[in-house]
Every structure is written in C-alpha cells, then in structure tokens.
C-alpha cells in the first residue's frame, strides 16, 4: 500500500481563541521503533487542546506541535517492534498530532476498537478513559461501597468517571451546571447529581456523611470545599483548574482526617506509564465496554477543517460528553 | 504480688502553661481484656502532652485524662487475652495516663525493651518510633536513594527520622535552629543539616535537585516552600503545625508534579492500626535497635512531680532529643 507524502492537518497559527486553528498541509510522519502510523478516521477534542491553542500548555519535547491527543483509525505502517499489523483498527492515546489525516504514536498506547463500537465512538475513548482510570483507581484508590464525588459530571471525564465508579460499586455523586445535564448524569448512574448553580454540593455531601474520594477539575474555591467534605482517610485528586489553581487551606484538616491531596496530568507522563495504563484498561475496562456496560457519551461532531467550531462549543460548556472531529470516511 | 490501691500521678489542673501540671493521687487502674497494667519506671514527654495541657487537644473517648503517651516499665497485671506475662519489661504506646506510677494500655501496643537498652531510653522510643515509621515509611513510602527532608531535625521525631532514613539508604537533609543542633543532626547521619535561622532550606534542596519526601511539623510558611522544593512524584507528610496550619498554595504544582500532600496524627488512630505499626517496628526496627544501629537521643530528665519543668524545657526548644520523667526506681 502506498502512502501519500503530504496530508491535511489543522495547525495552531499563533495562539489565542478558536480562530487560530487553521487548515494546512504537512508531510506524513514515519513511525519509529515501537511506533505505528495510523490513518485517522476520527479525532477526539479535549480541554488540553484548547489550553495548547491558547499558548498555555506547550507540547512535551519530541511531540508534534499539532493539537490532538486521541484518535481512532487504521494502522497503515508499523515501526520495528510494535505489536500491531497493518490493517488493525485501533483507538490510540497520542503525544499530539491527532488533528491530521495521519499520526504516529507508540504501539503500546493503542487499544483495539472495542467490538460493537464505531470508530467515532472509539476516538472518544482514550484521553478520558486513560485519565479516569489512572486518577480514580490507581491514584485515588476507589473501592466498592465508597462515596465518590466527581465534579463536571457531564464532561467527557465526568460521564466516564460516573460509569466506571458505578460499575465498581461506588456511590456516585456529581455536579453539573443545568438540570438537563444533571438528569443525564443520573441516567448514567449517579445516585445524586447536584446543580451547582442552585444547590450547595458541600452541604449535600455532608448529609450523606462526606466523600471518600473527590475527582476535581475546577479548583479555586472548590478546593477548600472538597477538603471540608472529605471523610477520614479521604482523597482529593485534581486533574485541571478551570476555576484557577490557588486556594488558602487549613492543612490541619489534612493531618487530623489523614487526607491525601494529589493529582496528575496525563500528557507529560512516561511512555512506560502510559503503556501500563493501556494494559490496565485492556484487562479491566475493555471487557465491560464490549458488553455495553460502559461507553462514551457523544456530543456533536465537526469536519476536521472546522475544528475551530468544535473548540468554541467545548469552551461554551454547552456540550454533554465528547466532541469529535471527522477526518476521513470513518 | 499485691498492688496498691492508689498511686502518684501528675494531672492537668485546669489548662494553661506548664504550671498547671500538678502532683495528685489517683486510684490504680485495672487492665481490661487485651490490656496490661504497667508499673511505670520512666515516661516520655511529647509535644501533644503540651497541647493537651494547653486545652488544645482533648484526650480521645475512653482515654485517661492524665497526660503521657509513652512509658517503659514492668508488666504487673495482664487482662484476658493479652500476650504478655507478669514480670515482662516493656515499652509501650499509651492512650494517655503515662504521667503516673501505673498505667493500662493494649498489650498489642507494647514492645519488649530492646536488648542492651535501659528503661529510660526505652521510655523515649514509642511515640517517636511509631510516628516516624507510619509517616515516613507507610504513608511517605521512603525508598533507598531518595532525597528526604525532615524539619525539626534535633527534636525527638527529627533525630529518629534521620537515623531510620539513613539506615534505609536515603539521602537525609534536615533543618534545625542552631549550629550545635545542626552538628548533632549531621553526626546522626544527615548529609546536610541546615540552620534555618541563617540559611535558605528551599535553595539548598533545589541545588540537589529537590526532595522526594518532606516530613514537616512546622507548617505555616513552610508549606508552600515544601511544595516548591518537591520533585516530580514527591510527597509531603505533615504531622504538626508549630508555625500554624494555614497557607495559600498554588495547587497546579500538585497536579503538574504529581505530588501527594498528606499527614496524620497517631493518637486518634484505631487500636488495630497501632497494633499493626507495633508489628512493623518489631520486624523492621527492633533488630536494628538491638545491634545499636539506631536508638533514642536523650535530652534531660526530671522527676515525675517536676513535669512542669520538663514541659518548660520542651517549649523553650533548647532540647536535643527526648525529655523523660523518672517515675520509679528504673
């Protein structure tokens, strides 16, 4: 099979609002040792793409400067030692470069498209499932029967966290910004979705005795609220700061309740760490996916050249679930 | 052997400065199921005793209202199911009540007096060794080769943490308030003791690439400094707040460096949790103690009725290592 020399991409021309996302042409990349080249059918859109576009989140050394951290498509070339074959259909976590017709990524960061799932859905999986797995289960240590609070319940991260925590037997509480979003969160398995515009999540969690684990992407004034509502031996895991990263805290609560405050970002982690998460997902989550117990919640999709519209929608927070870009006939 | 009905104790008459510590007489307690009665030879003096005396740290439900969290002495009566015999010489973590001629405590919170160690030294072990073990190794996960910073290096906690971390193969850094205290910390195995009155510990740790683990009992303005000097995947464990518990923090550092901020206090933990720590100490630390590789650093001692003088010395911070009270002919 012959590959073209050039491909269509969307690049970040300067930095700023969605309008800096600009269609362009680039050379098709070549897979190095351990890597695969994927012909992208669909690409997922994520918050870090918008931070990178705004100039606030530089790609790690060696990564493509193109945005895009996940995709689904067909393996069309395989580097030495990568354990996939040309023709395999995969979804993949990417170091960057997903807003393009072709992308390279380590083979160990790819997973098979789950049986029964279309490529559009598969493209919406990697970034949120890798993030939720490593933060809620590895880092946060969620156990059956525990009380779990996830903020931003209607986001890609939120809809994934609700489903996985429910499958693991946790009691799930969540916050969202409208009654419509709250209804969707409860449909997905939240025991109680809290409209943060009209209700006090701290008081509601206190009423059930507090939370064992909080997954937060808001920060700001939520940080002291989260710490206050945690039970003894509770954990707070922070994965973004849409409300700002600074807060004053009385750390005596951390000591007296033996809390753990931690967090992570996915992109700068080592290839080995990401490969470990992929293995855990394959063992623990893909079987649930293939019987339809968990799956992506899909918002709107846009053609690749209209990536700016996708970012504008994400930044309006009108969406529920994942926004995707259609790249090739998927 | 017949036991007296009454005993000499030091009680907290009201709350306030060292002068509220007052000699008194109380009934000798009786051991319940799983408990032992110890004739106290020596009792250790600790910071939480002073907080309790000042009215800032109430004893947990069911505990003696007398101060004193550790002692060494002879087992003189054994409750049903406790695995000690009358005549055994033990050192013990206490729920309270150590400033007395007799005290009861769960048998599972006692350890044999290490071979070659006198009762005065043994009385100085439990509170700091239980605290350091659970916070530095269980909670903080210190590994060989890691960079470890412990504040208050010349305190009972500090001198214990320096020795154990050195034995575990960590690179130990510490802070103390005089050149004399710093010299003692380096003699105990610190690679570098930092006089916090004349030197900048943050800058010195940055020069060696940062710390993997910080054990802090200062808090206040140290909290943001600690977070700043931690490496990726670093841990901050907080066990007291001599400088106050409040701080403003940029939590983006926690996320980007994948830090863990945690802490604990020993006294409110369950009997089972304390028994687990005792088992770990018996296996991991008592053998080192019995060959003289680690041991208590002794400051001054005072007769039990002069407990007020012991507290005044501790609160002056003039001491290096542990202050003890002589209760009976030990």
Features:
EC 2.3.1.41 (chains A, B), homodimer, 7-stranded mixed sheet, Phthiocerol/phenolphthiocerol synthesis polyketide synthase type I PpsC (chains A, B), alpha/beta, oxidoreductase (chains A, B), Quinone Oxidoreductase, Chain A, domain 1, NADPH binding (chains A, B)
Report on this structure.
Two copies of one chain form a homodimer. Chain A has 330 residues and is α/β, with parallel strands linked by helices. The first copy, chain A, has helices at 47-53, 119-123, 126-139, 156-167, 179-187, 201-207, 222-229, 252-256, 271-284, 286-290, 307-316, and strands at residues 6-12, 21-27, 35-45, 70-78, 89-93, 102-106, 110-112, 147-150, 171-176, 192-195, 211-216, 230-238, 246-250, 260-263, 298-303, 322-326. The mean pLDDT of chain A is 96. In chain A, strands 3, 4, 5, 6, 7, 15 and 16 form a seven-stranded mixed β-sheet that branches. The first copy, chain A, has a six-stranded parallel β-sheet with strand order 10-9-8-11-12-14, with helices on both faces. Chain A has a two-stranded antiparallel ribbon with strand order 1-2. In chain A, strand 9, helix 5 and strand 10 form a beta-alpha-beta unit. In chain A, helix 3 packs across helix 4, helix 3 crosses helix 9 and helix 6 (201-207) packs parallel to helix 7 (222-229). The longest helix of chain A has 14 residues, at 126-139. Chain A has two domains: 6-125 and 267-326, Alpha-Beta Complex (Quinone Oxidoreductase, Chain A, domain 1), CATH 3.90.180.10; 129-263, 3-Layer(aba) Sandwich (Rossmann fold). The first copy, chain A, contains eleven helices and 16 strands.
């Amino acid at each position: 099979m012959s590959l073209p020399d050039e491909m269509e991409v969307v690049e970040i021309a300067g930095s700023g609002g969605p309008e800096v996302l600009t269609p362009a042409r680039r050379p098709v990349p070549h897979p190095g040792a351990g890597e695969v080249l994927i012909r992208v059918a669909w690409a997922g859109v994520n918050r870090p793409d918008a931070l990178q576009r705004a100039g606030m989140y530089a790609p790690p050394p060696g990564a493509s400067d193109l945005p895009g951290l996940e995709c689904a498509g067909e393996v069309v070339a395989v580097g030495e030692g990568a354990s996939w074959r040309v023709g395999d259909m995969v979804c993949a976590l990417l170091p960057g470069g997903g807003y393009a017709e072709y992308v390279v990524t380590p083979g160990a960061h790819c997973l098979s498209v789950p049986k029964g799932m279309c490529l559009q859905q598969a493209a919406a999986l990697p970034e949120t499932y890798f993030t939720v797995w490593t933060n809620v289960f590895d880092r946060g240590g969620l156990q059956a029967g525990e009380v779990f609070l996830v903020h931003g319940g209607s986001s890609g991260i939120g809809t994934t966290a609700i489903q996985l925590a429910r499958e693991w037997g946790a009691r799930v509480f969540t916050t969202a910004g409208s009654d419509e979003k709250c209804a969707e969160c409860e449909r997905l398995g939240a025991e109680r979705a809290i409209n943060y515009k009209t209700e006090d999540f701290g008081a509601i969690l206190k009423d059930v005795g507090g939370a064992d684990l909080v997954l937060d992407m808001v920060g700001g004034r939520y940080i002291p609220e989260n710490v206050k509502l945690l039970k003894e031996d509770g954990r707070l895991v922070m994965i973004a700061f849409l409300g700002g990263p600074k807060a004053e805290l009385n750390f005596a609560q951390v000591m007296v309740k033996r809390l753990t405050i931690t967090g992570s970002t996915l992109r700068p982690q080592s290839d080995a760490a990401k490969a470990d998460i992929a293995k855990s997902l394959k063992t623990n989550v893909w079987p649930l996916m293939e019987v339809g117990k968990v799956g992506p919640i899909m918002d709107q999709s846009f053609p690749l050249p209209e990536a700016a519209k996708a970012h504008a929608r994400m930044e309006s927070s009108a969406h529920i679930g994942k926004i995707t870009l259609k790249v090739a006939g998927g």
